[in-house]
């Protein structure tokens, strides 16, 4: 597909309104981040996804969602033996190199907000692909020397994010 974010924004009305829907791609032909910067999406190497969900319009933490997902990812990376650094406003780095980018877009409705929270993570991306990126970048493969199961990684990340989001929304009611 062109991008998980674009797909989600076109099809969100068909998704369950009271759940987190995950749009995932093996590759993207037009993946993008903030300010429409291109996101390299080699087939089968990374994680390219958009989480789609609704929040009440009265939520006072909408601007924190990208950081919340970054924290969820950082927690998961620490469990995997990697020391991440969250770079404001939407990147996760390891050893000063970008491993993930997060993009949060919203559509305001009458009494709720539709959230499109995109994430790209360099999981098993090789050095050859990373060298084409216009900034220092790395992958879990390069940092740990082992291949990662992208499906299990994503399932664990979504579970962590859902738990973190629930804690955050309950604390801010």
Folded structure, characterized:
By secondary structure, the protein is of the alpha+beta class. It has one domain: BirA Bifunctional Protein, domain 2, CATH 3.30.930.10. It contains five helices and six strands. A six-stranded antiparallel beta sheet has the order 1-2-6-5-4-3, sandwiched between helices. The radius of gyration is 15 Å and the shape is globular. The N and C termini lie far apart (37 Å). The mean pLDDT is 91.
Mean pLDDT score, rounded? 91
Low-confidence stretches: none
The helix tally amounts to 5
CATH architect. name: 2-Layer Sandwich
Main sheet overview = 6 strands, antiparallel
Overall number of domains: 1
CATH superfamily: Bira Bifunctional Protein, Domain 2
Structural class: alpha+beta
Kindly identify the CATH topology: BirA Bifunctional Protein, domain 2
Rounded to an integer in angstroms, the radius of gyration calculated over CA atoms is 15 Å
**Can you give the helix content as a percent range?**
25-40%
CATH class: Alpha Beta
